[in-house]
Amino acid sequence: MTVRFKFLSVALTACLFGAQAHAQGLRLAPTTATSVPAGSAATADFIVAVVNSEPLTNTEVQREVLRVQQQFAAQRRPAPDPQRLNAEMLERLIDQKVLLQFARDTGIKVEDAAIDQTEQSIAAQNQLTVAELRQRVVADGMSVAQFRAQLRDQALLQRLRERDLEPRVKVSESDIDTYLQAQQNNQDPSQLEINLAQVLIAVPEGASAEQVQALQVQAGKVLERARAGEDFGTLVRTYSDPSAQSNGGQLGLRSVGRYPASFVEATQALVPGEVSALVRSLAGFHILKVVEKVNAGLPAISVTQSRARHILLRPSADLNEARARERLLDFKKRVQAGQADFAALAREHSQDGSAAQGGDLGWANPGMFVPEFESVMNQLAPGQVSEPLLSRFGLHLIQLLERRQAKLSEAEQRESVRALLREKKRDETAQTWAQELRGRAYVELRAAPL
Q1: Which of 123-132, 182-191, 342-351 has the lowest mean pLDDT?
Q2: Are 21 and 15 in contact (CB under 8 A)?
Q3: Burial profile 309-340: b = 16 or more Cβ within 10 angstroms, e = fewer
Q4: Cα–Cα distance between 372 and 392 in angstroms, integer?
Q5: Residue 263 pLDDT grade (very low, low, confident, very high; cuts 50, 70, 90)
Q6: How far apart are CA 426 and CA 7, in angstroms?
Q7: Which residues, 6 or more positions from 303, have their beta carbon under 8 angstroms from its beta carbon?
């Protein structure tokens, strides 16, 4: 893939099918030298389709074919069959033109100021000036006008989605009830995830029959104490092999396919809190306690919450983006050197409603912040301060305060199901809606000239 951007071209259509691209979070891909040989049939320009009254050229299609081929090459994956890929890109570009024409014909417009802001955001995320960004775009074979036109198309389709698609996507309380009931009755083992804790009584390699017998007796006694209700964590620390003592002996929530078959068989009839019979493996004797069993289709019972604070600066005529970034970098340096308190700086400088609380954003569940903010926050350790980052709201400096596991209320669990069902319905509705618009359009396919 060249320095074009993921959300451009064919991906414009994808943004109507659930892939909500945020320009602020996209980065330039490395430039490659791959190209179609000049003068080949693939590069000859001619009209391959007419969509209503607008032509679609072979050059446009081949540009997307090349983009996808380069993407597969960068991922070291075999590219699709060229003939099939060419047909797919043609169909996607026809769909894209239908959607863009409908957006324009029904009055959706995108102001130049919005394109300017998007261009600035992409440049900032790639640590470039706008001028440097444009130089790289031109070096990739695209004019600045073409680049900005594609940015405008992306914005048009996003606004079309918000206006015409989102209102069609509705999830009722009965939809949630039906989904939960179906998942509770789902006996598909591939949907099951379990967390097991173990006490491992290790059997040394080459142990004699007498040694194995003695260790089995010891394991049996530990099993009796576990089944009698003794604290399992204490048994782990006291009797388990050191290699199996981390995290209280817990192996972590994972699909049944990622556990040994003997572990799954020993615990499949158990409920959380129960302890299995002894399980023999090459490592020794295992005493397994079921910590948690989860149907992957059901909402999470608990989530990792984050508590962070931030300083927000909004670029303006008096404070351009570069100066705002420099100011935040200075704040970070002073905080790390112990010369300033983050909360005090936030109260004095942050242009956000949280300033009065020292920038404290409170405990937040996953998904509560915009993706570009949350992605950076999730990479921080408690006490760590981020680099300045750009979001749709401005430039942020984030400090993570702490994390915790929190149990979700029933209402919160239902909201997570609602979000899941909305995404599923959005994809289904988008497909049907796009097909309806395509069905009303005039599309004429044309063969390549001889």
Answers
A1: 182-191
A2: yes
A3: bbbbbebeeeeebeebbebbeebbeebeeeeb
A4: 9
A5: very high
A6: 19
A7: 365, 366, 405, 406, 408
- Alpha carbons 268 and 224: distance in angstroms, whole number: 20
Q: What is the pLDDT of residues 294-346, one digit of tens each?
A: 766 666 666 778 999 999 999 887 888 888 999 999 999 999 999 999 999 99
Closest CA to 256 of 330, 317, 192: 192
Say whether 302-407 and 189-295 share the same fold.
Answer: yes
> How many Cα atoms are found within 13 Å in the side-chain-facing hemisphere of 175?
14
Question: Mean per-residue pLDDT for 272-278?
Answer: 91
Environment class of 396 (CB within 10 Å of its CB; exposed 0-12, middle 13-18, buried 19+): buried
CATH architecture, domain defined by 189-295: Roll (3.10)
Residue 5: pLDDT over 70: no
**Biggest alpha carbon–alpha carbon distance for the chain:** 88
pLDDT (tens digit per residue) in 393-427 = 889 999 999 988 777 788 877 887 888 788 888 88
Q: Which tokens hold the place of 26?
A: 């996209």
Domain ranges of the chain: 1-186+410-450, 189-295, 302-407
Domain 1-186+410-450 carries which CATH code?
A: 1.10.4030.10
Tell me the sheet residues that pair with 288. Answer: 198
CA atoms within 13 A on the CB side of 60: 23
Q: How confident is the model at residue 380 (pLDDT cuts 50, 70, 90)?
A: confident
Neighbours of 156 (CB within 10 A): 19
Alpha-carbon dihedral angle through residues 44, 151, 5, 367, given to the nearest 10 degrees: -150
- Cβ neighbours, 10 Å, residue 246: 11
Q: Is domain 302-407 given the CATH code 3.10.50.40 in the classification?
A: yes
Contact yes or no for 103/16 (Cβ under 8 A): no
Amino acid identity of residue 336, one-letter, is: Q
How many CA atoms are closer than 13 Å to the CA of 279, on its beta-carbon side? 22
